């Protein structure tokens, strides 16, 4: 039995320790907002937070999160400045990468509330958007920069 929290709620799962966190999140816990992309940590669609740090859940064994806090896209409130900026800047197109993009952006802003273009590009470079919305993503991050999330969210 592996115990950890997801979006602030304690979880206990009985799976093989090497099971990727992504599959535990999606199949065991029913949180399907986190997407499967490449399965090799190359595209970033599966990005979640582990103790506040953006990680690729497709290559993270669930045993690595025992006793730790995981946040998925479902744990980011709709009123979060990043989600509001995403809507204001009309970022999503197909939407597949967007949960990973938002998770990476929220982790960036938590660590660096006023990132410049270089910091944004560095933080977001591992998240592939097939629709090419990178300029709108950067604009949305600038819009959200410096705004504090309400309710204690990231």
TrEMBL record:
Among CDD domains, the record links this protein to:
fer2 (cd00207)
Record flagged with keyword Magnesium: no
By its UniProt entry, which InterPro entries does this protein fall under? 2Fe-2S-bd, 2Fe-2S-bd_dom_sf, 2Fe-2S_ferredoxin-like_sf, 2Fe-2S_ferredoxin-type, 2Fe2S_fd_BS, Beta-grasp_dom_sf, Diverse_Oxidoreductases
What the entry lists under SUPFAM superfamilies is as follows: 2Fe-2S ferredoxin-like (SSF54292), CO dehydrogenase ISP C-domain like (SSF47741)
For this protein, the record's Pfam families field holds: Fer2, Fer2_2
Tell me the ranges covered by the 2Fe-2S ferredoxin-type domain, including all copies. 1-76
Query: Does the UniProt entry include the keyword Iron?
Result: yes
Per UniProt, the keywords (alphabetical) are: 2Fe-2S, Iron, Iron-sulfur, Metal-binding, Oxidoreductase
PANTHER family reported in the protein's UniProt record:
BLR6218 PROTEIN, OXIDOREDUCTASE WITH IRON-SULFUR SUBUNIT
| Protein known as | (2Fe-2S)-binding protein
What is the organism lineage in this UniProt record?
Bacteria, Pseudomonadati, Thermodesulfobacteriota, Desulfuromonadia, Geobacterales
């Amino acid at each position: 039995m592996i115990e950890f929290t997801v979006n602030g709620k304690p979880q206990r799962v009985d799976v093989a320790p090497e099971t990727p966190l992504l599959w535990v999140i999606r199949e065991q816990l029913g949180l399907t907002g986190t997407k499967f992309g490449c399965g090799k940590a190359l595209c970033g669609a599966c990005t979640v937070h582990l103790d506040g740090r953006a990680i690729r859940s497709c290559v993270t064994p669930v045993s690595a999160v025992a006793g730790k806090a995981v946040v998925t896209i479902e744990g980011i409130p709709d009123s979060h400045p990043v989600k509001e900026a995403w809507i204001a800047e009309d970022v999503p197109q197909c939407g597949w990468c967007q949960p990973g993009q938002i998770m990476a952006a929220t982790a960036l802003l938590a660590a660096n509330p006023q990132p410049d273009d270089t910091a944004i590009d560095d933080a977001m470079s591992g998240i592939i958007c097939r629709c090419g919305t990178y300029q709108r993503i950067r604009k949305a991050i600038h819009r959200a920069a410096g705004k504090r999330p309400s309710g204690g969210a990231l």
